Amino acid sequence: MEQKNCDFSALVKQVRRQLSLSQEDLAHHLGVSYTTVNRWENGQSRPSKLAKVQFNAFCRNMTKRGRLALPENRIDPANARQD
């Protein structure tokens, strides 16, 4: 389970850097606080189910727009919503 938290931390950082967003900017896009994104990136907390769904939807949207180059397997299909 700790591995999943590490994977999520790395994914948040990767997404944020590819999109050239600050932690505050990403938090705004996801509707969470800056502190929440900071804790995710540092592995200090894990996202709620709702926050993870929002993060996955944001990643899929940015990928569709061509702004994010992320392999499909990096987005958690268990929490993916079908559009």
Describe it for me?
The chain contains 4 helices and no strands. It has helices at 2-18, 23-30, 34-41, 49-64. The chain is globular. The protein starts with a helix and ends in a 19-residue tail after the last helix. The model is unreliable at 77-83 (pLDDT under 50).
**What share of residues are in beta strands?**
under 5%
* Run of helices and strands: HHHH
Count of individual domains: 1
Helix content: 55-70%
Q: Can you say what the CATH homologous superfamily is? A: lambda repressor-like DNA-binding domains
Please state the second-level CATH architecture. Orthogonal Bundle
CATH topology name: 434 Repressor (Amino-terminal Domain)
Give descriptors for this structure.
mainly alpha; single chain; 434 Repressor (Amino-terminal Domain); disordered C terminus; 83 residues
